[in-house]
């Protein structure tokens, strides 16, 4: 399995493209936050074949290119049930909060994720971890064989997600990190919604927001 990080959209949210070379370059697109043309040009130039869009959560900076990419490649969008109504609600997805951001209305998701589970989409098998706190429906995607977790805005290099947006809960976020992410193998790479890559071991050792929980 290969993956690529591509900062997109108004605040350079990390979109991730995950693909399998041995299976017709099947790809999952995680959090296409904007710049649909830039993303599709990369996909075309690398002969990638998207088969689904996965959303870690539905804040505006993670969903800006969802409809364009979904339409272009005729692929389904997956979202957690707690946020299935956020996509077309600017108050919930946060776009109404910022005057410089147009109110964002995204069509409803095609597939609803309910509960923690192992999922198989095409040639990919991964685990869905419920990691609420940054938002009620925040989830992380753990690919055990590749030793990587796509954590959305739950856990960052040296930081954690903000909880002052609609539905945020600081204690819930800390609980999610300590009970769902930190128990992963220490060598697991953490691919966050913003910023650079880190590891579970590094955040256990040095993340100042996790001390004393």
UniProtKB/TrEMBL annotation:
SUPFAM superfamilies linked: Metallo-hydrolase/oxidoreductase (SSF56281)
GO molecular function: hydrolase activity; metal ion binding
Keyword match NADP: no
Domain (Metallo-beta-lactamase) ranges: 12-194
Pfam families linked to this entry: Lactamase_B
Domain of life from the UniProt record: Bacteria
Record keywords, A-Z: Hydrolase, Metal-binding, Zinc
Cofactor: Zn(2+)
Stored InterPro entries: MBL_Glyoxalase_II (IPR051453), Metallo-B-lactamas (IPR001279), RibonucZ/Hydroxyglut_hydro (IPR036866)
Name of the protein in its database record: Metallo-beta-lactamase domain-containing protein
